[in-house]
Amino acid sequence: MQKTAVEKSNDPIAAQLAPVGRETVQDRVYLELRRALIGGLFEPSQVLTIRGLADALMTSTMPVREALGRLITEKALEALPNRSVRVPPITLERMDDLLRARILIEGEAIALAATRMSPRQVSVIESMLGEWDEMRALKHKKDVDREVTLNQRFHFEIYRACGSAVLIPMIESLWLQSGPCIRVAIYAFSDAGEVDTAHFHRSIVAALSVQDPTAAREALIADISRPFNFLRNKLQSEAASKGKS
Amino acid sequence: MQKTAVEKSNDPIAAQLAPVGRETVQDRVYLELRRALIGGLFEPSQVLTIRGLADALMTSTMPVREALGRLITEKALEALPNRSVRVPPITLERMDDLLRARILIEGEAIALAATRMSPRQVSVIESMLGEWDEMRALKHKKDVDREVTLNQRFHFEIYRACGSAVLIPMIESLWLQSGPCIRVAIYAFSDAGEVDTAHFHRSIVAALSVQDPTAAREALIADISRPFNFLRNKLQSEAASKGKS
DNA sequence: TTTTTTGATTTGTGATCACACTTGTATTGA
DNA sequence: TCAATACAAGTGTGATCACAAATCAAAAAA
Q1: Where is the GntR C-terminal domain (chains A, B) (predicted)?
Q2: Domain residue ranges in chain B
Q3: CA–CA separation, A31 vs B1, rounded Å?
Q4: Is there a contact between A82 and B169 if contact means CB atoms under 8 Å apart?
Q5: Which nucleotides of chain D have an atom under 7 angstroms from any protein CB?
Q6: A97–B165 CB contact, under 8 Å
Q7: Does the distance separating the beta carbons of B165 and A94 come in below 8 Å?
């Protein structure tokens, strides 16, 4: 029998060992930059240099340039004609464009998921609601990173249940693109006095637990529209005050 | 005044000169591979090697590996655990998944375009209809490449009018992913006796010329569903006959 | 003071090399 | 004859270097 390295052995001892994933440096760089972008660690219009990132990530330039290339193709970063690369600036048109696409695709994904989620899966995301509560109750100091991460886990746990290997990468790309916007919005939120963010998530869970695709879609649209609408108002008022001065 | 290379000169003589784009080798490789994938020049499950492609494209391995990385992130190619890369195989589930996503996103794009296209723009794509006719009238020998190219130009001329910088790259990614399927379907078409492919395009143009988003969306759905449905039947009958033998 | 020019530094791109892993083919053993 | 081993060719990954283009700063000219 031909034995290749990719297939798992049937040895009863080896069966207890988890396969040691051979992640490349390039993958680690890519995932790290992804995390930073979705979390909004880079600000819009900031330019990124290959050697600078390589130094910060303690690797050579090679894995970084390939990771940057990948991020550029999914529009998470932008290639300037000078061949330098920056995180895309925020404009009103782009925000509306992103929100429309997210409503379209994430709405479809959650509608699909609503009809396919088992009660077991629903209970998993329901438990996240509790996590959210205790986080907000425990400490009032803003822990934006954890909030962003939890929000991301909540949404993608749902999207994964839609069972589409095509839609999910697209949603990831959309989150990557709207990451910088969201970060700005969240900071603006906590400045403007926190409204109940958990309310939307509760209605999403409620719709999913009764397998109602339409209600789930509408609750989701309300949820993801809120930071965009907030940010749009903020940008418009800033533009108005700047126009006067 | 600071003068950089990226900004266009105001010199009245230089104004007549088109900027000479500084396309990198990597870009050329990427575009060439894209073209090959959408055109279906690679067959499903075919593995691609960096050095092999570098030899074929007459460059070093460097631009090729970066282009491959980009194509992998947009799911146009697939990275195997062995770290070799292949064009994804066709499965029934994946086909249905792709078709659903295309109906969702391209349908939205054409509905947006229907309300925004000027009569001038409509006449441009209407003229493509004629191109199609003369191509089919002139020679009966199948010129699949030209047919695929014209079909692509026709669709993207419409999508561009939707004015969404977010949706269009997603549609390109979807075409990239469904490219290998389409090629197989087109060959199957011409074997099975050609039904009127132009009919669908005529109804699309008709809907656009009266700015009817719903009709345009439905005509488009019929158009892009046809090869998928055809291919699905073909695969199912093949699977059935293979199950018997 | 303002503008232009010159030079030094930084940056992205492509090529080449070394290394580790995989794969395919002989060779050896039973 | 067949299975296992050993060897050889092939492949992806990461590092380093050379080069051209871009950027920035200081110096020179207006």
Answers
A1: 97-226
A2: 22-86, 92-240
A3: 41
A4: no
A5: 4, 10-17, 21-23
A6: yes
A7: yes
What is the CATH T-level fold of the domain B22-86, as seen in this structure? Arc Repressor Mutant, subunit A (1.10.10)
**pLDDT given at position A1:** 42
A143 touches chain B (CB under 8 A): no
* pLDDT of amino acid A189: 66
The whole-angstrom separation of Cα B237 and Cα A133 is 54
Pick the CATH number of A21-86 from 1.10.569.10, 3.40.50.1110, 1.10.10.10, 3.30.300.30: 1.10.10.10
Mean pLDDT by 10 residues, chain B (245 residues): 44 55 87 90 91 93 94 94 91 93 97 93 89 72 75 94 95 92 71 67 92 95 89 77 57
A176 CB contacts (<8 Å, ≥6 apart)?
A34, A37, A38, A71, A74, A75, A76
In the CATH scheme, what is the homologous superfamily, with its name and number, of domain B92-240?
GntR ligand-binding domain-like (1.20.120.530)
Sole residue written with tokens 């959210």: A132
Q: Bigger pLDDT: A20 or A122?
A: A122
CA B99 to the chain's CA centroid: 13
Backbone angles phi, psi at B163, to 5 degrees: 75, 20
Helix (H) or strand (E) run with residue A206 in it: helix A198-209
User: Is the Cβ pair A6, B108 closer than 8 Å?
Assistant: no
Which bases of chain C are under 7 A from a protein CB atom? 3-4, 10-17, 21-23
Strand C contacted by B211 CB (< 7 A):
no
Confirm if A111 and A216 have CB atoms less than 8 A apart.
yes
Buried/exposed A94-117: b ≥16 CB within 10 Å, e otherwise: bbebbbbbbbbbbbbbbbbbbeeb
B177–chain A Cβ distance below 8 A for any pair: yes
Chain A residues with CB under 8 Å of B100 CB are 164, 166
